[in-house]
Design goal:
Blueprint: E1 2-5, E2 12-20, E3 26-35, H1 41-65
Antiparallel strand pairs: 1-2, 2-3
């Protein structure tokens, strides 16, 4: 996953995870953004793990369609 804190937008945390097709190519992404003051490192990492789980589920659905 990718996590940006205060670089793209000061005061904002942006987290992105890839959604992959059956050939492990990125086809989509899931992104979450929050205020840096409300999303500390532990919460950001927990959110990243949740996004990864959802992205994995979506990747499996995409693979099943092909």
């Amino acid at each position: 996953y990718s996590l940006d804190r205060n670089h793209y937008i000061n005061g904002v945390v942006v987290i992105a995870v890839p959604v992959l097709d059956s050939h492990q190519r990125m086809t989509h992404s899931l992104v979450a953004a929050g205020l840096a003051g409300q999303l500390d490192e532990a919460r950001a990492n927990a959110l990243a793990r949740d996004l990864q789980a959802e992205a994995n589920a979506l990747s499996q659905l995409l693979a099943a369609r092909n």
